[in-house]
Structures are given as structure tokens and as C-alpha cells.
Design brief:
five-stranded parallel beta sheet
Length: 236
């Protein structure tokens, strides 16, 4: 379960990160609104915790950016329990807010509640969750058989159209991240999905087509890499 934390106060961020990691969450922390927008496009997160007051803007702007790219739950941290702050955050689509100073147990309870309410489950506690498989800027929604790429400049997700064989090939790599897959392994997978014989040349064509669709630079692939003499690998 990945949490995106935007907090400029080092002491608060360190304490919060420590507590979240103890609960089994992975935390990515940014200090400014500008850094948050850049980092968001290159990561995959289940929930965002945003401080309202930031050195170069505010958490409202970051919330707008996050919500424009997908329906990820947001919790605001606010130093002032003012009604206008709460209302503005909720109108922007925030799922909850908590006032500083806060008790860690209360925040953890709110995180679990927001995740359950959003349908993502609590994977830190062993739930399956419904989030996508993330590889670089790629998002694979296995429940919907849908693949998207996050556009770095805007943070929006753009749908990638794949054929059934291309999608199965991508799923095979996603299910074996960090493992070198030989051409024989991949040919067996291609056979399984079609019931027809797929030869070595056809596999080469499909890998090229898949790279053309998912890689920023197909000539220098970063998602599906060639391991010379052995096969291919999708790194973790």
C-alpha cells in the first residue's frame, strides 16, 4: 500500500513516515507543490496525505492535480480547524481532513476508513486491494483489462489500446517482475491464450509491437528489457 505524503515540516514528515512504515505502508514524501506534481506522474499511490500550507502554494492545488488524473483518496492535514478550510477541501474532492497536532492512532484509523470507503481495501493488513499494477508510468488495471500511461506533464492517464495477445504478453511480464523469461516461456504463454502455434518470429513481432505502445523510447526500452542470450525481463 503506497502513500503519497506532501509535508514541508521535516519533523512532522519524519515522525509520520516512521509511523506509517511501522504499519506496513510505503511512503513517498515531497516538500512542495511543484515537487509533488512532478513526483505524482512517476509513481503509483493508493492514498495522498496533503498539508494545506506549502512553501510554493497549497495543498488545494495539489489535490486538484491529483483528482484530475484519477480518483485517488486524499486526506488533508490542516493547522487551523476553520470551517472554510474544511469546506474548501471537501468541495475539491478530499475524502477527510485532520487537524495538527494529531494523534497517530486517530490518523491511522482515518486512513483505514478512507481506503475501505474508496474500495481499495487495506493491503497493509492483508487485503487484496483494487489498485493497478504500476510499472514506471504504466498502469495495468487487471480487473478491467485496461492499460494506461501517466502523462508526466499533466499527470493524466491515457488509455493504451492493446490486442488480446499484447495484453496477455504484458500480464505475463507483470506477473514475473524481476525474473528473466526465456523465449520458450513466452511462447508457451502465447500458445495458451490462442490455442494456436506461435513461432519465434511471431513472438519477436509482438514484443516489438508491445514496446512501441508502452515504451517512451522503444529503441531504448525501460519497461521490458532484453537480457542478451537469455530472454527478457521486467524489472521490479
Amino acid at each position: 500500500m503506497n502513500i503519497f505524503l506532501v509535508e514541508d515540516d521535516d519533523a512532522i514528515a519524519m515522525g509520520l513516515t516512521y509511523s506509517l512504515e511501522k504499519e506496513g505502508y510505503a511512503v513517498a514524501r515531497e516538500k512542495t507543490a511543484g515537487q509533488a506534481r512532478l513526483a505524482w506522474a512517476n509513481g503509483c499511490y493508493d492514498l495522498a496525505i496533503l498539508d494545506i500550507n506549502l512553501p510554493d502554494g497549497n495543498g488545494y492545488d495539489v489535490c486538484r492535480f491529483i483528482k484530475s488524473s484519477g480518483d485517488v483518496p486524499v486526506i488533508f492535514l490542516t493547522a487551523v480547524d476553520a470551517e472554510v478550510n474544511v469546506v474548501m477541501g471537501l468541495e475539491l474532492g478530499a475524502d477527510d481532513y485532520i487537524c495538527k497536532p494529531f494523534r497517530i492512532n486517530e490518523l491511522m484509523a482515518r486512513i483505514r476508513t478512507v481506503l475501505r470507503r474508496s474500495g481499495r481495501g487495506d493491503r497493509s493488513a492483508g487485503g487484496a486491494g483494487n489498485g493497478p499494477v504500476c510499472v514506471g508510468n504504466l498502469r495495468v488495471y487487471t480487473n478491467e483489462a485496461r492499460v494506461t500511461a501517466v502523462i508526466e506533464e499533466t499527470g493524466r492517464e491515457e488509455v493504451i489500446e492493446l490486442t488480446a495477445l499484447e495484453y496477455r504478453l504484458l500480464l505475463t511480464f507483470c506477473s514475473n517482475r524481476g525474473i528473466v523469461l526465456s523465449r520458450k516461456n513466452l511462447l508457451q504463454e502465447m500458445w495458451d491464450v490462442t490455442g494456436d502455434f506461435v513461432n519465434d518470429n511471431t513472438l519477436t513481432v509482438y514484443i516489438k509491437r508491445l514496446r512501441d505502445k508502452i515504451e517512451k523510447d522503444p529503441a531504448d526500452p525501460k519497461i521490458i528489457k532484453t537480457v542478451r542470450g537469455l530472454g527478457y525481463i521486467m524489472e521490479k
